[in-house]
Amino acid sequence: MDIRTLPFDHVDSTKLIELVQQEYVTRYGDPDVTPVDPAEFAAPHGIFLVGYRGDEPIACGGWRRHDEDEGPLRAGDAEIKRMFVVEAHRGNGHARAMLAALERTAADADCRRIVLETGTRQPEAIALYRSAGYREIDKFGVYAQDVLSVCMAKELE
Known about the structure:
Number of strands: 7
Order of helices and strands: EHEEEHEHEE
Oligomer: single chain
Largest sheet: 7 strands, mixed
Strand content: 25-35%
Structural class: alpha+beta
């Protein structure tokens, strides 16, 4: 998989973001309503990555920096958003490769920890994150009170 940095609102990014939002509708009944601004995923505040197989966009993920302490979030945290692999390409290590690229770019941007919010209806995502060294933390964001929400973090080197 060839991983490229693209704007959050690039046509290939938005195509994949629409698919991940549909995945949330299928699993939870609604899309992710966490407020996001495309500018948050542009340097130096963040990044958005798209993985390609040939010319086909098959995976995506981004992170945005948090510059202030807010509940369980710390200044210097990078929050992962919209991590996704197209169904036909799952099981080939693309999610792990995207996660590693997100972690590397966050560390390169001097982020100290990487955090994320996922849900109990995404057991394969939870298993991936745990196997990569993520641990549960107190819930944050718009899903802080949601029983289906799971928030995780990993210290970056």
